[in-house]
Specification:
The chain is of the alpha+beta class. The protein has 3 domains: 65 residues; 108 residues, Cupredoxins -  blue copper proteins (Immunoglobulin-like), CATH 2.60.40.420; 85 residues, Cupredoxins -  blue copper proteins (Immunoglobulin-like, Sandwich). Helices cover 36% and strands 19% of the residues. The protein has 8 helices and 12 strands. Strands 3-2-1-5-8 form a 5-stranded mixed beta sheet. A 5-stranded mixed beta sheet has the order 4-10-9-6-7. The longest helix has 35 residues. It is elongated, with a radius of gyration of 27 Å. The structure holds dinuclear copper ion. Dinuclear copper ion (CUA) binds next to loops. The site of dinuclear copper ion has 9 residues, from loops.
């Protein structure tokens, strides 16, 4: 059984995250020793010198400066900071200079207010808020290299069990890589304040066995399978403004401002983690996205109940 997903840096499952935990323990160790010494002195002083003097008018002995003590409390912290700096720089360097193997999986993650676009440029897949990657083992190493970008404001891509934070900055391209060792689902979220719905800009990373990952890729690459008769909903979708912002591959709908809906129902949440992706929630979302996730940039289309039913009947076929 796989453990429950947790945004915990002390439960790493991927190479850069292992190193980050090591470094965290080192820094916590040093700061713990400093804390014990400082707190120890403070408590000792309170107990030893805390008594009220017998004669309150009598001043305690005054000490004016000591070169040795001042030198000690300047040089010792300086040395500690230098050690922390050098060790951190060594870890950062080790993580960042890892070269990308030619056959590594490439993903582009694009921060949007307030959702994540996920692209697999070499595989022709575009999805949202859910990253699927293969597990990596010693026999079959399968690291994933992630390009991080933003289309609007600064966001930060962070999946604590897999890697450190990486800022998503407009007009800049950053990189991060992961190499998960354990199949499972890992949670992440935007870690840079980016506006009203910063707190609801969640993402999940699903780590598959290598066979399951190939099956996921094949499913995402295939055109959506329409089941039953949803002509009314499909026509409604292409007659409304939906197609200006959303793409459904193989249809006239090719907008890029909103999430790609080709395989909408393969995703577990709506609105980057705002709610579970069920037909009822989907209907409420289309009816009024702002009521569902205040500030969401998708407008309410003022549809009547019949139109909503038809549209949702179409959308749920996008598997
Ligand atoms: Cu995007 Cu905070």
């Amino acid at each position: 059984m796989t453990p429950a997903p947790t945004p915990n840096i002390f439960a790493p499952v991927s190479t850069p995250a292992f190193q980050i935990r090591e470094l965290s323990f080192f820094v916590l160790g040093i700061t713990a020793v400093i804390f014990v010494i400082v707190a120890g002195f403070a408590i000792y002083t309170l107990i030893r010198f805390g008594r009220r003097p017998a004669n309150p008018d009598l001043e305690p002995a005054q000490v004016y400066g000591s070169k040795q003590i001042e030198l000690a409390w300047t040089v010792v912290p300086l040395l500690i900071v230098v050690v922390l700096f050098l060790v951190t720089a060594r870890y950062t360097w080790g993580i960042e200079r890892r070269a990308q193997p030619p056959d590594a999986l490439e993903i582009t993650v694009v921060g949007n207010q307030w959702w994540w676009e996920i692209r697999y440029p070499k595989l022709g897949i575009v999805t949202a808020n859910e990253i699927h990657v293969p597990v990596s083992d010693a026999a079959n190493p399968a690291p994933t290299f992630i390009t991080v970008q933003s289309v609007d404001v600064a966001h930060s891509f962070w999946v604590p069990q897999l890697a450190g934070k990486m800022d998503a900055i407009p007009n800049k391209t950053n990189r991060v890589w992961i190499e998960p060792r354990q199949v499972g689902t890992y949670v992440g979220q935007c870690a840079e304040y980016c506006g009203l719905q910063h707190a609801v800009m969640l993402l999940v990373v699903v780590v598959h066995s290598q066979d399951q990952f190939r099956a996921w890729v094949a499913a995402q690459q295939s055109p959506p399978v329409e089941q039953g008769t949803v002509t009314a909903g499909r026509e409604l979708f292409s007659s409304l403004a939906c197609i200006n912002c959303h793409t459904v591959r193989g249809t006239p709908s090719n907008g890029v401002f909103g999430p790609d809906l080709t395989h909408l129902m393969s995703r577990s949440t709506l609105g980057a983690g705002a709610a579970r992706n069920t037909p009822e929630n989907l209907r409420a979302w289309v009816k009024d996205p702002g009521a569902f996730k205040t500030g969401a940039l998708m407008p309410a289309m003022k549809l009547d109940d019949t139109q909503l039913d038809q549209l949702v009947a179409y959308l749920v076929t996008l598997r």
